[in-house]
Amino acid sequence: MAGRWLADWAHLVTLAGLASTVWGISLAWTAAVNDYRTFAGRPVFPRLTALTAWFRRHVLRQRREVVVLGGMANATLSATGTLTATGEVGLPPDATPEQQFEYVRERLAGLQGELYRLDRSVGETERRLIQEISQIHAESQRRDDELQESVRRVATGSVKRELKGLLLVGIGSLLTAIPSLFG
Hints:
Keywords: Membrane, Transmembrane, Transmembrane helix. The protein is an all-alpha fold. Helices cover 76% and strands 0% of the residues.
């Protein structure tokens, strides 16, 4: 009677080890396949996937899954510029020194006004560009943080499943080996 009990016990432990091994392998397999699909963007075995889809459609008469995606596109176009046309009346050839001096003084005043206007324009452009760069930097930082979080989530989720699968395979292997130790 004791021998039969040990034999039954050995069979149960072996079956438990086999179940644990199969469960662990399936967890590790699903984690690896999900990672591959996430990063490669295509199935692991494309021909098998196509054959399975054909089987579902033609043999099982299942309808094809339809995924409807919505989205939004945004485009921004910006242009700035200045066009200035000025006309001048030159000095007559027989201009007096006082006329020449007055002409040069007016010309210098005009150039000074133009320099002041250009300086203001450059300052406004610089402030606008600094603001745009700050916005772009903030958006870039936000997207970088989102990407880091996504990578962390995928990596840790996958590692957890793979470790659970590895643990179950180890337990299954130990449980399968126990009966051979006693019998």
